[in-house]
Amino acid sequence: MTMTPICSVFNEYLHYLKAPLTTLISEVNIDMKKTTLSLSAVVAVSLGITGAAIGSASSTDATVSVKAMADALHLVMDSDRTVYTKKIVNRLVKKEKVIKATEHFEDDKSLALPAQMFRFGSELAMKRAEKMEDVDFSYTLQSLWPINRQNAPKTKAERDGLKFVAENKGKNYYTTETLGGQKYFTAVYADTGVAPVCVSCHNKHPDTPKKDFKLGDVMGGVVIRIPIES
Question: What is the pLDDT averaged over residues 135-139?
Answer without folding.
Answer: 94
